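User: Is it possible to get a 3D structure for a protein together with its bound compound? The compound here is S-adenosylmethionine. I've pasted both below.
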Amino acid sequence: MIIPLDNDKGMGYNGDMMWNNLLLPDKSYYQDDAVIIYHADCREILPLLPDKSIDLVLTDPPYGINYQSNHRSTKFEKIYGDLEYPTEWLSLVNRLIDKGTIYLFCNEASLDEAKLLLHQNKWSSNRLLIWDKQSTSGGNLDNYASRTEFILYGTKMFAPKLNGSRDGNLISIPRVRPQDLQHPNEKPYLLMAYLIMKSTNPNEIVLDCFMGVGASVKASRDLGRKCIGIEIGEKYCRIAADRCRQMVFDLKV
Ligand SMILES: C[S@@+](CC[C@H](N)C(=O)[O-])C[C@H]1O[C@@H](n2cnc3c(N)ncnc32)[C@H](O)[C@@H]1O
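Assistant: Yes, that's possible. Here is the predicted structure of the complex:
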């Protein structure tokens, strides 16, 4: 008898396994005690995660702008799913989070859609955080050069207390230097670490459904949190897994 490779739970699904007291699909690309990475479309994995298992959603979906970087001799490939702003995923996340926080990255082009998406899924949008990249990126030379992107800070049910001091909504952290980029939309490790530190406590679970090269998973791990990362690009999963194999970065926070 030929056993089909895929079933109603998706390609490569071998059953479930326990990870940090959660019953998760056993088809991970990489896992250790703090991080689990799925190489998949997040819409395939999210329905398989347990109810109320997530404390923080920290994620950076494609902005829906069909972005192509022109600043390198070897250009990055276009981002998967960047033709239109992705929306289906958040309704799949709702079941996973009871009361908690979301940080949703966006830019000028996707801000309205990102706000609408939160609203439609009954998340409150509490504050618009402005990430000052400390330097400008390319674009139309006849326009003002942009040095900011946005992060919508939202909560469900009630707003969990933020850790540390009461900070302003302007976050000034340098972007990844062009020569160091491994992903065209890579976010800095320190930015992810800052947001994780503000909104989680040790051992809480972070979810990044559009993980890219994994600053979120690496920072979660270094901060003593747990993280589930999902990414459709195999190359990016490989880079994220390699980062997780490196020594723990001792973040003094
Ligand atoms: C804006 S980038 C995230 C970059 C990431 N923050 C980083 O620092 O590397 C969005 C990522 O989502 C991935 N992606 C797009 N659609 C996806 C989907 N349906 N499921 C999982 N990953 C997806 C893309 O391959 C891309 O790497």
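Residues 1-6 have pLDDT under 50 and may be disordered. The radius of gyration is 18 Å.
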